[in-house]
Give the backbone structure.
Amino acid sequence: MFVYADNAATTAVSPKVVDAMLPYFTEVYGNPSSLYSVGQKAKEVLEESRERIAKILGAKPREIYFTSGGSEADNQAIISAARIGERKGKKHIISTKFEHHAVLHTLEALEKEGFEVTLLDVHSNGVVDTKELEDAIREDTALVTVMYANNEIGTIQPIAEIGRICREKKVTFHTDAVQAISHVHINVEEQNIDMLSISAHKFHGPKGVGVLYAKGGIVLTNVINGGAQERGKRAGTENLAGIVGMTVALEEAVAHIDENNEKLSKLQERLIEGLSKIPYSELNGDRNSRVTSNVNFCFEGIEGESLLLLLDDKGIAVSSGSACTSGSLDPSHVLLAIGRPHEVAHGSLRISLGEDATEEQVDYIIKSVAEVIEYLRSFSPFWGDLVSGKRHHIFAE
Amino acid sequence: MALYSEKVMDHFRNPRNVGVIEDADGVGEVGNPVCGDIMKIYLKINDEQVIDDVKFETFGCGSAIASSSMATELIKGKPLAEALQLTNKAVTEALDGLPAHKLHCSVLAEEAIKSAVKNYYDNNGIEYDPADFPDPEVEACHV
């Protein structure tokens, strides 16, 4: 059996999306900046896509900027808000400890320039406390950036409430909605979101294309300089096939949010229940405030990379927050942020189901994970020490 | 190219010499759970100072398990003096290479064997130069 359960990493492009994209490679291949017909036809499709995406997000077309993906959108949103703040003497930014690296590393670069960054705690459940956020806002706060749903543990943040607080305090609010857009109903107007990032390949669109929504009046700073595309704010010939694919994929995803959530929440429940039966395991992140596709566990006494490699041998594609898989010394900053000690953070597993997942697949995942963990524990000296009492268990049996 | 060589994957999927020697003559353990890898080596050493049997237990990533497996294969049936000459480089080469950020796994394997030999020397009152052995107090994670 082959089970692709790493949809938070990327998704397969849906056939409908592929079909929608194809004419823009070989038929309407013109440059939207060109004045002849095939160029102007491309321009029309580009602007029509912008309108369709704006409609879904509750935005105006001129507030939609096409980018190369989520990372670029995050970079540009944060840098733009920082430059606007800087001009007014505001050099403080609030974010969270478990943001995506596209956000955290951009903030680190700004810190080197003299910005001050407050990273909010995300507590053991992986959810920001809005009171703590409110208390962190200062006179010189230029930006609040909080992800909509976390990419590793799937926890959903109280975005509308954060938006309300930021609007009241007149602070710009950005959210990285890459992991949320296909699972949660998002409306930038109703939820007081000033800037938002999404990426097509997380919802069955193509890789290399995304959107930055920036509310009218927010003057963006270019991160890519060159031609006058995207109202002069993002240079480079538009990836029209990608943009069309993203538009179709987004419409499909958003139209089916409720029905997908209903189906996935049952599978999620089954998966969590099944994996909880593995001794000394624990779910990471809040049980209820999480996207329906995500299940993330820590298992004592084993290491995540060997777990995922052996699951791959069984046809299951999943990911882990272990240091081994990241190539760095430390395990996932997300798991550390929710207070997992290093030794169990190394033994983590993220399963992100696709909408086409079945009960049979979920049962196969549960059975396979249990088998592999039992095998790895059978010759793990760490597990041996836990069993003998030389080291203490962190989780309950 | 895949992350790991076929040799690494073979030793990871079918590790040789896995287990425990209950009446081991020397036992060595290196690494710690905070760093994400622990290797434990058990040696059975005969009167001719030859390694009759070796077993390992490892907590760690694919390359840690493969390095342990390969290291035990390389010293099984060898005189102690020869086993002490085993370098992390030799383990890595025998595995047809490791990714740069996984080289520490082969270092752990070398250290685990040395630590087990040291334990054997200690148990039997055999003198040795402590400088030839890893410092068990060093607990920092390898890069």
